[in-house]
Design goal:
By secondary structure, the protein is an alpha/beta fold. 45% of the residues lie in helices and 17% in strands. A seven-stranded parallel β-sheet has the order 3-2-1-4-5-6-7, sandwiched between helices. α4 (92-105) packs parallel to α5 (123-133), α7 (198-210) packs across α8 (222-236) and α7 crosses α12.
Length: 354
């Protein structure tokens, strides 16, 4: 059997811890497969990607280099993320669809793994995506909404399979939390359009501080989240701890594992928390959060339509409820996460047969 060369595309090299965790997992899958010879990663920061993961990486915007490596590759693989959507950017969806068209023009195999499809709000983009995605060889998606969107696009059903976000596969066993003097809660927040959570979060932290609970804030998308942490620190002072350094996946996981609870608005903070069996309260700003919770048979504390009107008293009560029922929450998480992890095998089988 011929071993394959892979060109791997995703939202890599932009300082988003979630996407870097996805890249880390897919590189592990490729290296563990006897079917894969070489992997080249398209990155927004190829030097950093090369240094951090010891993998050949090229500038995703250098079209000459992209074409050069497409000629050399056997398959173009899109690894995880919400790549095909037009909410955060109107241009990025066209970039990824362009790559698919280019690869198929060159006669290359195109594989999309653990994708979150949509939202695609512009009708022209939906039609264009439908036309291009019909050329893909196989697509795995991380949630049921993505399956529904692809069905509306009239994508051949036999091409579409379910496989969870690879980060849920981080192999951490349920562990006894390290001994700390205080109960600890991790907050992973973000700014998003007109969402302003600062005042309500500060009220919650004030109450938790008075209860003797330690609150810890971390960055997930460093360049975006640092400003928010600075703002919160100015308001809260020493009532909370702020970890402002750029974290690796392992560092973030070690912090989350040391917590009794996580309050999160970022998808991969919630996924890491679930993977470590640490109970969480999910604040949703995007359908992908709601969809992940559905995969775990859980509910968000507030959905995307109401995230800007969070009531601090209600959130505080939810946090205390979760803490008081920690053991039951962990048991439920463990059962749901282990079931979800079984679907990762779908991706592994595809990689072994590219």
């Amino acid at each position: 059997m011929k071993v394959k060369n892979i060109l791997l595309a995703g939202y890599y090299g932009f300082g988003n811890l979630g996407d870097e965790a996805i890249l880390e997992m897919f590189l592990m899958y490729f290296r563990d497969s006897s079917n894969i010879k070489n992997v080249v990663v398209l990155s927004g920061n190829p030097e950093e990607t090369n240094k951090r993961y010891n993998v050949k990486s090229i500038d995703r915007y250098n079209i000459i280099s992209v074409v050069k490596y497409l000629f050399k590759t056997d398959a173009l693989v899109f690894g995880g993320g919400s790549l095909l959507q037009d909410v955060t950017s109107k241009r990025s969806i066209h970039y990824y669809l362009f790559l698919i068209k280019l690869a198929k023009l060159m006669g290359k195999k195109v594989v999309l793994l653990s994708q979150g499809i949509g939202p695609i709000v512009h009708e022209s983009n939906l039609k264009y995506a439908s036309k291009v995605l019909k050329k893909a060889d196989i697509i795995t998606v991380r949630d049921n909404m993505s399956i529904d969107i692809l069905e509306k696009m009239d994508i051949e059903k036999s091409k579409v399979k379910f496989s969870a976000d690879p980060v849920i596969g981080l192999g951490f066993k349920r562990e006894r939390k390290k001994d700390f003097d205080k109960t600890r809660i991790c907050f992973t927040l973000r700014n998003w359009k007109n969402i302003v959570l600062t005042e309500e979060i500060c009220k919650v932290v004030d109450k938790l501080y008075n209860d003797g609970i330690e609150c810890v804030f971390i960055c997930f998308h460093y360049n975006m989240d640092l400003f928010l942490l600075d703002e919160l620190e100015n308001k809260l002072g020493n009532k909370a701890k702020f970890i402002k350094n750029r974290l690796t996946t392992q560092e973030a996981m070690e912090i989350i594992k040391s917590m009794d609870l996580l309050v999160g608005i970022r998808l991969h903070a919630l996924i890491l928390s679930a993977s470590a069996y640490v109970p969480f309260v999910a604040l949703s700003y995007d359908p992908k959060i709601d969809q992940f919770l559905q995969c775990l048979d859980m509910e968000v504390f507030t959905d995307m339509n109401n995230v800007n009107s969070i009531d601090s008293e209600a959130l505080y009560k939810e946090i205390i409820l979760k803490l008081n029922n920690k053991e039951q929450e962990q048991e439920k998480l463990e059962k749901s996460v282990n079931k979800l992890r079984e679907t990762i095998q779908v991706n592994l089988d595809i990689i072994d047969n590219i």
